[in-house]
Structure formats: structure tokens, C-alpha cells
Write a structure and sequence with these properties.
The chain is about 45% helix and about 10% strand. It has 8 helices and 4 strands, in the order E-H-H-E-H-H-E-H-H-E-H-H. The protein is of the alpha/beta class. The protein has a 4-stranded parallel sheet. Helix 7 crosses helix 8. The protein has a single domain, classed as Alpha-Beta Barrel (TIM Barrel).
Length: about 150
């Protein structure tokens, strides 16, 4: 798991070096980065290189502010998010809040894929399953943008 600061200078090279050594590369909480908030396109080359994007639950449900929440939902809508995690490090540091974040996504199949299926496949060393397709009636939007 890497922070976007580590990947900033030469993201493709870092991701390639780790992947050739058999590591899955997970980018932690990019929705909290001001540059990513300004341009989701920064993550496209990383995702194309196989980097998985992990969103913080507190960003998705709004506990980390409006900018992080909007960016998290935009990443979900763009198909650039692969994991949803607490980033709590320990329950004494920060509440985990995965249930509230999964509900904020408003798409149970996607929430399950982000919180259960993808992590299980990563731990088992298996390829990821396809991201669940969204039905037209299912909107991935931030509540005040709906």
C-alpha cells in the first residue's frame, strides 16, 4: 500500500517494479489529495498500470469533508476505485465506519465488491472479478449533488 506522494515522481516505474516482484500495488486514499481532487485524470495512468485505488470510508460518507467526499464519489463513478477501507490503523485512533460508507455508496453490489470481494481476491492472490455493472436506476452521486 502506497501513498500518492510516493508515486508522484515516476508512478509507472514504481508500480512496474513492485508488480514484477509479485506485489499488488494499492494506492491509499487519493481522494484526500488536493491535486487528485482537482483532476481525477492523474489516477488514470496508474489504474491503467494495474494500481488499485483504495478509498477511505470516512471520505465516502463525508466525515473527512465535502471535497474528499465529492472526489471519492467521482472516483467511484469513473470506475477508478477498487477498495474501500477504514484507514483507522486502530479503533482507538479513528472510527472505522465501513457500514456507513457502504450505505453512502447507495449500490450494495458495488459496496460488497469494494469491501469484501476485492480484498479477499487480493489476499488469495487471485485476479479481480469484474466490477459490478450499475443499472440505470442506480446513481453514484454525492447526496447534495443528486
Amino acid at each position: 500500500m502506497l501513498d500518492i506522494q510516493i508515486l508522484r515522481n515516476n508512478p509507472g516505474e514504481v508500480a512496474d517494479r513492485l508488480a514484477t516482484r509479485g506485489f499488488s500495488v494499492v494506492l491509499a486514499h487519493p481522494e484526500r489529495n488536493a491535486e487528485v481532487q482537482a483532476s481525477l485524470e492523474l489516477l488514470k495512468p496508474l489504474a491503467d498500470a494495474g494500481v488499485l485505488v483504495q478509498l477511505t470510508a470516512a471520505s465516502v460518507d463525508g466525515r473527512l469533508g465535502k471535497h474528499a467526499q465529492i472526489c471519492a464519489h467521482d472516483l467511484l463513478g469513473a470506475g477508478l476505485a477498487h477498495l474501500l477501507a477504514s484507514d483507522a490503523h486502530a479503533s482507538s485512533v479513528r472510527a472505522t465506519g465501513l457500514t456507513a460508507a457502504a450505505e453512502a455508496i447507495r449500490y450494495p453490489e458495488l459496496a460488497d465488491w469494494l469491501t469484501r470481494e476485492v480484498p479477499a481476491r487480493l489476499l488469495a492472490g487471485e485476479p479481480l472479478s469484474l466490477r459490478p455493472e450499475r443499472r440505470r436506476s442506480q446513481r453514484l452521486t454525492v447526496p447534495w449533488r443528486a
